[in-house]
Automatic annotation (TrEMBL):
Keywords: DNA-binding, Transcription, Transcription regulation. SMART domains: HTH_ICLR (SM00346). This is IclR family transcriptional regulator C-terminal domain-containing protein. Residues 13-73 form the HTH iclR-type domain. The keyword DNA-binding applies. It comes from Paractinoplanes globisporus. It comes from the Bacteria. Coiled coil: none annotated. InterPro entries: GAF-like_dom_sf, HTH_MetabolicPath_Reg, Tscrpt_reg_IclR_C, Tscrpt_reg_IclR_N, WH-like_DNA-bd_sf, WH_DNA-bd_sf. The keyword Repeat does not apply. Residues 74-258 form the IclR-ED domain.
Amino acid sequence: MTDSGRGAGPDFIEALARGLGVLRSFRSGTPTQTLSEIAARTGLARPTVRRILITLEALGYVRGADRGYALTPRVLDLGMAYVNALSMWDVARPHMEKLVAQTNESTSMAQLDGGDIVYVARVAVPKIVTLAVTIGTRFPAPATSMGKVLLAALPAADLPAVLAEPSRSGITPRWQPTAAELDASLREVRAKGWALADQDLAPGIRSVATGVRDGDGNVVAAINVTVHAAETSVETLLEGHLPKLLRTAADISHDWSLTAAVPAVTV
């Protein structure tokens, strides 16, 4: 069994874990799957997968397709519930839109999930890039500017366990650093307060990122500016776009801290 592995303790609900494993088996490049394919990917028995799919279909999260099953847009509710619970998009959106207007380049926000980054907010401009990015897209953290920022912010004791988790992105990055190379890179990020990824993930993708902080100064997300390497040099990215990015991150951090400080009111 892969994503739907057994947990520990009497309170672990294995049926729920199996259902989530079935949902996670739908990845980029596999929008539609047969029952057999899902069983093979999750490691679950076909009868179990069938019951889970029937349940998910009744709840509106999957639908029957020409070649098996496909997710429905209702699945987005699961991810957006997380984003909306943090007021992340509401706080970040105006600042990200302003940054895009200033740079004419796309900007995204991500958080760490194991050894991957997961995109939680994005304002894009039409550009031809080698990798499609949407909310929920995940990439291996070490090969991305946002990932470097988030990894650099982790307590040293937590970093080995995070890096040991296998990526669920399905992407093989160009840059696969040794432990020493990654350590040196993260030390540099801590010293500078920002990170550069120059085609580390894939050809043509160049980005710079910095952290978004809460009221206690903890890095809770990362925000970037992404450019096409054939159009924008490293010098332009760092000298032209980075100062604007740093200001945007500071503004989002400020507003986020204010939002978090407002007490909840029960009517």
